[in-house]
Design brief:
Elements lengths: L6 H25 L8 E7 L10 E4 L2 E11 L6 E7 L10 E6 L6 E6 L12 E2 L1 E3 L4 H10 L16
Parallel strand pairs: 1-7, 2-6, 5-8
Antiparallel strand pairs: 1-4, 2-3, 3-4, 5-6
Length: about 160
């Protein structure tokens, strides 16, 4: 049973295939599977990299300057070792800091680089030494509820609280 296709059906099929190819290319770019990108790599080691994964944005002053390309657990230090790919043409001072930040209470996680003031630059492949780990919202709430904040001494019996 041979059936001829109208030009409308052929055009609609071609549009569906083109849209699917566009979505595939976009998802490959967003997830980092689009192949090697121009740029240079740095590393950083965190005590806790909660919420961070491969493809997480690296930002400076709110502008995306790179992404996380690899994340492994160091079996000797038990820290999360991250490899970062940053855009070419960006030279960071060697005393720059990096921290795990959140976009808001319910927002996503990203890495924020705070540039230092050193006249010397981080060469490609170097490690950012000054790292600030993720702060767990659950841990903060538990500290608030139980009153077991760091540095706060419990009140003695009969002592008035401030």
């Amino acid at each position: 049973m041979a059936q001829g296709y109208s030009m409308t059906e052929i055009a609609l099929g071609a549009a569906v295939i083109a849209a699917a190819a566009g979505f595939l290319a976009y998802s490959a770019q967003v997830t980092g599977f689009s192949g090697p990108r121009a740029g240079y790599e740095l590393t950083a080691s965190f005590r806790s990299a909660e919420g961070v994964g491969v493809g997480t944005d690296v930002r400076m002053a709110g502008v995306r300057i790179g992404s996380v390309t690899e994340m492994t657990l160091n079996p000797e230090t038990f820290r999360a070792d991250l490899r970062l790919s940053l855009i070419d043409g960006l030279s960071l001072p060697e005393d720059s800091a990096i921290s795990v930040s959140a976009e808001g209470l319910l927002g996503g996680t990203y890495l924020e680089i705070l540039p230092g003031g050193s006249p010397f630059e981080l060469p490609p492949g170097a490690a950012i030494e000054d790292t600030q780990s993720a702060i767990s919202l659950v841990t903060l709430l538990l500290r608030f509820v139980t009153g077991s904040g760091e540095g706060a001494a419990p009140a003695e019996a009969g002592e008035a609280l401030p």
